[in-house]
Amino acid sequence: MQTHPFSIVLLGLLLSTPPRASQAPQVPAPTVLDALAKEALGNPRAHTLLTQLCSVAPKRLSGSKGAAAAVEWAQETMLAIGLKNVRKEPCMVPHWERGTVERLTLLNKEGEANTDLSVCALGGSPPTPPGGIEAVVLMVRSFDELTQLGEQARGQAIFFNRPMDPTLSDPFAAYSGAVDQRGGAGVAAFKAGARCAIVRSMTLAYDDNPHTGAMRYEKDACVPTVAISTFDANELEARLALNVSVHVKLELDCRWFADEPSFNVVGEIPGSELPKEIVLVGGHLDAWDLAQGAHDDGAGCVQALEVARLIKALKLQPRRTLRVVLWMNEENGGRGSAAYRDLHREELGLHVFALESDRGGFAPRGFESSSTGSSLDVLARIGEKLGAYGVGFVNHSAHVGADVGPLQALGVPCAGFVPDSARYFDVHHSALDTIASVHPRELELGALCMASMCLSVANLDKPLDRIPLPSGEKPKR
Amino acid sequence: MQTHPFSIVLLGLLLSTPPRASQAPQVPAPTVLDALAKEALGNPRAHTLLTQLCSVAPKRLSGSKGAAAAVEWAQETMLAIGLKNVRKEPCMVPHWERGTVERLTLLNKEGEANTDLSVCALGGSPPTPPGGIEAVVLMVRSFDELTQLGEQARGQAIFFNRPMDPTLSDPFAAYSGAVDQRGGAGVAAFKAGARCAIVRSMTLAYDDNPHTGAMRYEKDACVPTVAISTFDANELEARLALNVSVHVKLELDCRWFADEPSFNVVGEIPGSELPKEIVLVGGHLDAWDLAQGAHDDGAGCVQALEVARLIKALKLQPRRTLRVVLWMNEENGGRGSAAYRDLHREELGLHVFALESDRGGFAPRGFESSSTGSSLDVLARIGEKLGAYGVGFVNHSAHVGADVGPLQALGVPCAGFVPDSARYFDVHHSALDTIASVHPRELELGALCMASMCLSVANLDKPLDRIPLPSGEKPKR
Q1: Per-residue pLDDT tens for B216-225?
Q2: If you measure CA to CA, which chain B residue comes closest to A369?
Q3: What is the ipTM of this complex?
């Protein structure tokens, strides 16, 4: 198109009830948001930080040397930004390694190797025995179908091939509707007497990239399990449709090691008036090992750091303490977020808000919050100011993020940043999740919206309502 | 991130006044939108069509063989989709060709060639004389600065280096704030007595790609003009900051030819009840010649075609006629849209709505409309149903698109589809505007939203209010 000046007007958010006067949001004055935006968009640093992280620790699955390097980088970066109380907080993490062999081969009638398929071990898979496993492929779409196979499944390779449903408007809903296969294939196939499992990759893309991710591991009770690219899943399905027996050979030398010591990394901008009250912002440092984890969740880490940097750059001091937390081990254990909860249990009542970014570094769409009622209204009013930067909603959701989950369960009002998700599962947990797939401006717009949200909540007169506890228990304050 | 089911709730749109009962929107019943979405997302065709267009007519500037091939492809595609009254409507178009030489060379002190910079001729530039032009570079940020140079400018190369402002929330506003340089550099430099002009590329990206686009051409009254990549613009600026004289040599063999006959391409789904009343949807077939014009505006063309295909696939017949119009010559003349207006002047009163897509094939954000008041409310209510697919606003704007502009000026209610714009100017008018930069799902989501908008308006009981004419003139109905 040509030169047609136009302006995006702030969109209105439907607020069912106006906020009570006592909870009127203390959003930054327009000049503060303007200043944040000017710094973020005129002097963006999130993508530069992400480039550093992806370079220093391109592979950083929990327990790896890369994860240790990421911890050191995070600590140094927090110090460079000028955060206070920078520290590493210990946690023990699981340690699984992919090894060097992951091969699924189609065998011809003579049992000779024919074609290698595009696969990767699922995270946590046991290895195959030396020499690999040979089996006949049986395709199922669900665990029920596996059960119906009965004795037929014994000794075979079970191929879980239910796709993510592309007709759902929300790719995360499509993911949720299919990912049970990734989590449960190994154990279910073991119970059925099968020798190995093959799971269709969790993606809406049709390409040659297998996507890894966590599977449930039970010692001596799950079989070696791989993800297969969607191209090869379709290819395999087409072969099976010919009603011929498809023989495969699987070789994996991935393995488990003893738990390793690791760390969450924490730093702060102390609050000016209520320094004991905490607004937390974070992402997770660990990432799957097929690429750089640039979107998942390097993006969330650098956005959390950039929130702090923007506030420092403007020489602002929020009323409450802003705490940046970069968690370890979100991907295959959640040990970091559990350790944070346990170490800080006594001060969780002073955590007034916890915001997580863990859905990729794409253009902002909105926020989800565990809050309801007038507290949700307060957040919605803050979000409304961010319409020009892409925020279109602040919705309630019962689950807003894995790493803030343990805090939410103990009453902390939590939120998750929601970027556009059309491209997310193309790269998620695959070799495509590299720095090249993250757009600098989209990433920075997210950091800007998160900064405004955190600063606004840190400056509220009255904190958000606590989240009701299922048990009725109240954490100490 | 891991497996956390969540759902995006439809966002509310702030409606200042509820629609009048008589104008209650006749949006498709939920089952119709659901069916459209199921077809669009389960059996998407927009990206396949775009791949065809980019393959059949990878370069299709007005007057070129590629443009003629695009016209034939469009006609065949409309017939294949099952449209009626498919035809080519003639228009004469300008014909400019880039030629084979476009070189800007830094010269060393001895006047020898040193470094070639990344440049491209602006569309419409005259060629240099044989042997090229040698001149000293003078940098300005505005036409005022050029005027202030006075006699100093005579015989020199004027370097217009005012960047798009990245701190503006809307990249289109940043574009509008800089693109005067591209349009006016050649004529202004001529008036100042300069020998050639160099314009910083219109993009927020820092890379090595020059971005072309239309410049104002006046015979014998403008100088040869090139766009320079932002990397090389910064490099040139840094050299000039050393206060040394920078000599360059410019060679261009682009040229103008006589106007050529060309066509808009038109096809229809006749309306069931009011076949003379028309809902128009379109994009422009021509594109700049550095790449495939995949976003600008192949995306808009295939989205308009996909709107019709989706409606046909569901065997729906709208009350009013849906007319797909693929305009020629948006980029450097607007002759196609003027010809459409002139040929259809007698039936413009029967054009109840015209929707244009010409801002790239990115994920949907909303719509802009020339309508106001209760008619804008009607459109907003339709948009509200599309929240799950990314539509967050239906805003009023005085200018919604170049190709619907001539219709809007004669009273037709018009709208422009607004996708996300963070990445648009990275590729716009450059060698990066290829099929690889268009995401299939993002493109299809736009087509889906456009289909729902067009179908809803085509089925309204009462048409939208006409746009008031500045002259008070009323087109015949």
Answers
A1: 999 999 999 9
A2: B6
A3: 0.90
